[in-house]
Amino acid sequence: MRKDLDQLRTELDRLRRRECELLQELSDVRAAAEAQSKKIDDIIEMQSVSVIDRLPVEILSRILHLALSVTRYEEWEQHPLWKQQYAGVSRRWRDVILNSPSFWSAIILGFGWLSSCIVTHLARSREHLLDITIRQRSPYNELPCHLLCYAPRWCSLTILFTSSNRDPVHDLLIRFRGLSFPNLKHLYINGYGYIDAKFMKAGNTPALERLRLVQRGEDRLPISFLPAVGRLTALTLSGEIGRRKLKSSSILLPFLRSLTVDASDPSEILKAIVAPELSRFVGRFRSPLLGGIPPVFNKVHYTCVLSSTKKSIATVCQVFPNVRHLEIGAGALEFFYGLGERTDLWGDLESVTFRTLPVQEFEGVVNKLQGWVRQRKSTAKPLHMRFTSISCGNYRLERTGRLLSTLYDCLPNDCTLEIDQFPLLERTRVTALNPTLHMDLRHLPPSNVNMYLGQDVPLRELTSDFQYISEDESSYYTDDDDL
What we know:
Elements lengths: L1 H47 L8 H11 L11 H9 L3 H9 L6 E4 L5 H10 L5 E5 L10 H4 L5 E7 L6 H8 L11 E7 L17 E7 L17 E5 L12 E2 L5 E5 L4 H6 E2 L5 E6 L16 E7 L4 H7 L5 E7 L1 H8 L10 E5 L3 H17 L8 E5 L11 H11 L5 E5 L16 E4 L5 H8 L10 H10 L10
Parallel strand pairs: 1-2, 2-3, 3-4, 4-5, 5-6, 6-8, 7-9, 8-10, 10-11, 11-12, 12-13, 13-14, 14-15, 15-16
Helix pairs in contact: 10-11, 11-12
């Protein structure tokens, strides 16, 4: 009897262990089934949602900002409509656009924007800093008064008046008197009539970093306010300065790195400005009377000569003795030709850029270039030559290929050549191809370029130093209608 009882207990223990094993197996099966079910749901969900809607909000917002960006001022007229159309794509897009103040921070006057549209932008931008553009052909007094109340939030201000009427700009700027612009960093004024700059008095624009004044007509540019904007890093003055006498070293701009003076005689400005960090200068040197400028611009390594004559060469090289990157505009070829006769000047040059040359002038440059490069001192650094935006005009286009070949063949092997937007319309062949040739020919894919040249052209990466200059320089040649 006892033996039978032990056998029954053993069998019961075996059955209970088996029960536990089966329960654990059932649990594992259920967990695996749940995991498989979740994977199926995830795949179905991914198939039903577009890739862009699976992006994080920050990335989606950045993409929409790029899609809504404009390249010309005229596009601002359609900008509110574009915003409305994008917001109607999906609920997620609508939430991103409506709930992101940065989408509503740009406010434009003069492109058909209704007052209600401006009010909407002011409300939805919340506390975000504002970018204001005023370009209207209608009377200035249509500037909404409630917009002036938000002046402390203005981050950038652009005023463009294309009409030759002298009153609107002056009267508009008078309305800014008494207002404070604590966050204004960028200011661009372009118009006729006297530019009243009294609103930029000390304390009113403490954060101003970039200032561009373009004075059209016969009125002279204001200058007396400059000491009050001592935090400027970039300054552009374009217009009539006149023969006014400025006290030497009277304008201290300790943070200024870029200066453009598009006037017939920049000497008075250069005498008055003290800018120890200045590294970039763009200007015209039509007058040879540039004497008396103190030698305080030793850090200027980039100079763009918009127009000049041979008579200014010695003085310009004395004022900016350490130039490493030189840009020549179409009106400054005489300066370049004269520089070719003075190979002792600017021995540290690393790059020379010719911009917007007509093809017929380009031919003359090629002829002069060979002698100048070969006459430079043996200790001089190898040059990077750059030609960009060559214009055709009425030139015989079938000769452009031969000019390109002549240009390349005349340069020594230690030079590098970069050509951008060149009208190459015939087959040609360079006779001594080496790895320093880099070309970017508009509308021509690399295969076609190689066909035109009769051989493969290796691409060349630009150095970081030269790339920085190339990117920065474009702002000085942008049409007023471009952003």
